[in-house]
Every structure is written in structure tokens, then in C-alpha cells.
Design a protein that fits this description.
Blueprint lengths: L2 E13 L6 E6 L3 E4 L6 E2 L2 E2 L6 E9 L9 E9 L5 E8 L5 E9 L12 E10 L6 E12 L1 E2 L2 E5 L5
Parallel strand pairs: 3-11
Antiparallel strand pairs: 1-2, 1-6, 4-5, 6-9, 7-8, 7-10, 10-11, 12-13
Length: 161
Amino acid sequence: MPKPVFIICSESGTVDRFTNLVSIHNVIEHLTCHAGESGEKKDGAPGGLGISKMRATAQWSKSEGDDSRAFFHEFTISMFGSPPKVISASAFAFRTPFHRFVVDLILPSSTELEDAESNIVFTSRIRAKGEEEWISQSYTIPVEYVGFTSGDRSSPESAQN
């Protein structure tokens, strides 16, 4: 079975057309969600998550015997406490020692973050055609909330009562 090499999330990336090498730009290690409408300024900080899109990149290596097998791949995302949702699915076969998958995602505005959990989890998973068991690798992005009232992340903290 294939082996996971890496999974990473970034704001963007490029692939060299001649060498097929990937460059990953602005790795996302955590996000800070500020109270207020997306793009709105509150105390000098942008509202929302501060970014509107992200890219997940996952790479897998083939093992002995994988050349003649067909595989399925899925990217799933669990966002703000939601159950995992498939955002990309494809069939593939290894033509080289490594196979890379990339998915781009538009992020929600801060108005959609009410009662949210504090993580975004991307999962890249593979299974061989005809098999039930998935092999997976995940990337978790912690989300910090700033300027929301305790227990209600959808409304900014009011001034001292």
C-alpha cells in the first residue's frame, strides 16, 4: 500500500512545469478569527480569518506492487466542528514514485463561525480499488478567536458593562 509523505496547508503554491517540483507559499500553521464582518476592521485588526482561501497539498509514495493497482483518493475537511465532508475525490494510478494531490478552498466569513469548534482538519486518504480500508494523513489548523464574547463567537465583545 502507498505511504504518506506529507500533507500541508498554505495560502497558495506553484508547480514547476519542467521539473514537477512544488513550491508552497505562506504555510498556515494557525488562524486567528477576529470579531466583525469579513474584512471589517475592529481595533485595527481585520475581521474574519484574515485570509479568504487556502490550499491543501498531500503527497503519497508508492510501495512495491503498487504499479499495477488502481487507487481512489479523497480530500476531506472538518471545519469548525462539522463532520468530515469530501471536497475532492478521484481515481488514480502511480505513474511515478510519488503522487501529489492539491485542493483549493474558499473560506467562510466570520459571520458563519457561530458556535464553532477551534480547528480546521484536512485529511488526505487513499484506498486500493476493491478494498474498504483507507490509509490517511491529516493536517490540523488551530483557530483562535479574538474579540468574541464568551460562549458566543458570532458577536463582538461589548464595551465594559
